[in-house]
Amino acid sequence: MKILHALEEITDGEPRVFVLGFFDGCHLGHQAVFKEAAKLAEEKSAGIGVITFYPHPMSVLAPDIRVSLLQSEEEKAESFRKAGMDLAVFIRPTKEFLSETAESFLKSLADIPGIKGIVTGDNFSFGKGASGNVSSMKSYFEGSDVAVVTAPLVSEGGKVLSSTTVRTLIEAGKVEEAAKLLGRNYTMSGDVVHGFHRGNDLLGFPTANLRMPDARVLPADGVYATKTRIEGKCYPSVTNIGTNPTFGNSEKTIETFIIDFDEEIYGKSFTLEWVKYIRGEVKFDSVDALKAQIESDIETAKKIFF
Ligand SMILES: Cc1cc2nc3c(=O)[nH]c(=O)nc-3n(C[C@H](O)[C@H](O)[C@H](O)COP(=O)(O)O)c2cc1C
Ligand SMILES: Nc1ncnc2c1ncn2[C@@H]1O[C@H](COP(=O)(O)OP(=O)(O)OP(=O)(O)O)[C@@H](O)[C@H]1O
């Protein structure tokens, strides 16, 4: 899949239909848009491309607001690749770009060499003040050979599924419910970094500390059954996210005990899948009490996996 950063960089003239949106998380609603695009692409004998942004436009419009996301740019690109796309345009939003009128954005789309269609969800809006919508887009392209198709909105429990809903569930520790809406477990990737070395030396449970990812949605503090993917293999594991109140750390960490695993992995990169919340983080009176609880957490995780 080719990656570009501005609409003007699309010059190959390949016939393509484009999906439009931010697509944070590539949840089931977004996947419905991808499926609709695959159908239209087949009818038009065209490829599929995506026009999206990175970073989130809100971080440009209101730099003081911290925007936490469900996927890094690389993870999102991987989801697009899996959906069969051959081009992803990650526009780098600027204040000027975001203040463009809806009409001017439509003109930029019409000017893309080879464009055969546009697919969005029914609730897609665009342009300054989000003044453009699906019906203004349909009117603009009427009579041209660019088809505008919308995917019906996917709902869950009577509510339209959105990235915002998934973020809220994860922040509340409800990673299982989030997984149902994402169609996969919530994941995070990064390197194994050094912690305080208490895990192995003091507790007898070595933990792989994940480098704290930048601008990502974090599950609520607590202990979770997780899966750890490292060098092509997947292991059951148990993860603590929080400040280790027993030791009074000042910074939040994400540390994982991988079950039945004994390898040196400092500096290696791994992917964590958040499967199920087990319990909240507790301040224990003694190291022995914490050790006993970690043993019990491992047994709970084993019951979930085996
Ligand atoms: C499964 C699991 C559960 C944990 N639960 C708690 C907890 O409830 N309270 C706490 O203070 N620390 C908890 N910890 C974190 C330990 O305090 C931590 O592993 C230890 O301080 C080692 O940290 P280090 O990797 O920085 O050396 C837990 C760790 C694991 C692996
Ligand atoms: N539930 C859904 N069903 C079908 N299409 C959707 C759904 N949610 C979003 N889309 C479409 O997917 C594209 C990306 O939308 P967007 O990134 O705004 O998603 P969102 O989940 O609504 O995010 P947020 O919660 O941040 O507003 C748009 O074309 C949008 O219309």
Cα distance spanning the termini: 37 Å
Order of helices and strands: EEHEHHEHHEEEHEEEHHEHEEEEEH
Structural class: alpha/beta
Q: Classify the beta-strand content into a percent band.
A: 25-35%
Enumerate the strands of the largest sheet in spatial order, edge to edge or round the barrel: 1-4-3-2-5-8
- pLDDT averaged residue by residue: 96
Overall spatial form: elongated
Radius of gyration: 22 Å
Number of strands: 16
Low-pLDDT stretches:
none
| Tally of contiguous helical segments | 10
How is the biggest beta sheet arranged? Answer: 6 strands, parallel
Share in helix: 25-40%
- Cofactors and ligands: flavin mononucleotide, adenosine-5'-triphosphate
EC number: 2.7.1.26, 2.7.7.2
Domain Riboflavin kinase: 181-306
Function: Catalyzes the phosphorylation of riboflavin to FMN followed by the adenylation of FMN to FAD.
InterPro entries: Cyt_trans-like, FAD_synthase, Riboflavin_kinase, Riboflavin_kinase_bac, Riboflavin_kinase_bac/euk, Riboflavin_kinase_dom_sf, Rossmann-like_a/b/a_fold
How would you describe this protein?
The model has no long low-confidence stretch (mean pLDDT 96). The chain is of the alpha/beta class and 306 residues long. The chain has 10 helices and 16 strands. Helix 7 (163-171) runs antiparallel to helix 8. The longest helix has 19 residues, at 287-305. The protein starts with a strand and ends with a helix. It has a 6-stranded parallel β-sheet with strand order 1-4-3-2-5-8, with helices on both faces. The chain has a 6-stranded antiparallel barrel with strand order 11-12-15-14-13-16. The structure holds flavin mononucleotide and adenosine-5'-triphosphate. Adenosine-5'-triphosphate (ATP) is lined by residues 20-24, 29-30, 32-33, 120-121, 123-124, 151, 153-154, 160-164. Flavin mononucleotide binds at residues 195-199, 203, 205, 207, 209, 223, 238, 240, 244-247, 255, 257, 281-282, 284, 290, 294, 297. Pathway: Cofactor biosynthesis; FAD biosynthesis; FAD from FMN: step 1/1; Cofactor biosynthesis; FMN biosynthesis; FMN from riboflavin (ATP route): step 1/1. Catalyzes the phosphorylation of riboflavin to FMN followed by the adenylation of FMN to FAD.
